[in-house]
């Protein structure tokens, strides 16, 4: 059974997409507990433009005690009289009335926001998303809401492909989740946003030493088609293989202690420890020979460097997980 919404809501911040979602969620919750959802009145007006008489009429008890939702926009720009009316009404809302106040947090009516919080408003935080970590969390939550689990690499690739606009990010996550049946990986991001996402040599290398053949081969073709130099791709693959060899031979241990011993950053040690699970001394030794030969090929010994890269990558993938 759906719970009745709180009578008083404060939508606080300036991120438009989050504001729209917060208001829509409150309205949907109110409709869910109404006998005739389609008939539920939803009144929207700008608090900064509304007269005291208009506000008083909206916020006063109805003769018929009808359920309704009142959405007051731009409350930060409300005048002194309007602020007084809203504050007074918030403390004693009529039965069946849900009041949603949209406030930026600043403006001439800055004091209204804390007054509504003091009155017991349910606060919806809609502050501008400006930091990289916040956008990262937003993308992850969008996929989570769609029932999709994604890797950190996928989150970063979506951000690099789409940018910082939350509407575009939300649309991209929704499209990827729907069109892939919930299997969103790096290959899917590249497929859908071919003109925007970039592929680095280290991404190709990570996929190869991780044994992901379809994604690794597609990433390699993607990189070569877009002019990533063969030398950079070969160097990245060599770096990954050498790192796994060094970390693997150092034995298991705390990444921070090994980082100091090996002269590597802890994150790189931790990553290599995870990748090393698909390798043993014999296969990693063979992989070292492959990347050494590839280094010579891309620096002049091979007539076709693209073919040399593809052959080396395929061999690395064959070695991963082999006994």
Automatic annotation (TrEMBL):
The EC number of this protein is: 2.7.7.7
A GO term for molecular function: DNA-directed DNA polymerase activity
According to UniProt, the reaction catalysed is: DNA(n) + a 2'-deoxyribonucleoside 5'-triphosphate = DNA(n+1) + diphosphate
Q: Which UniProt keywords apply?
A: DNA replication, DNA-directed DNA polymerase, Nucleotidyltransferase, Transferase
A single Gene Ontology biological process assigned to it is: DNA-templated DNA replication
InterPro entries attached here? DNA_pol3_clamp-load_cplx_C, DNA_polIII_delta, P-loop_NTPase
Enzymatic class: transferase
Cellular-component GO terms for this entry: DNA polymerase III complex
Query: Hey, which family's this protein in?
Result: Belongs to the DNA polymerase HolA subunit family.
**NCBIfam families found in the cross-reference section:** holA, PRK05629.1, PRK07914.1
Q: What is this protein called?
A: DNA-directed DNA polymerase
Per the UniProt record, the source organism is Nocardia nova SH22a
Q: What taxonomic ancestry is recorded?
A: Bacteria, Bacillati, Actinomycetota, Actinomycetes, Mycobacteriales
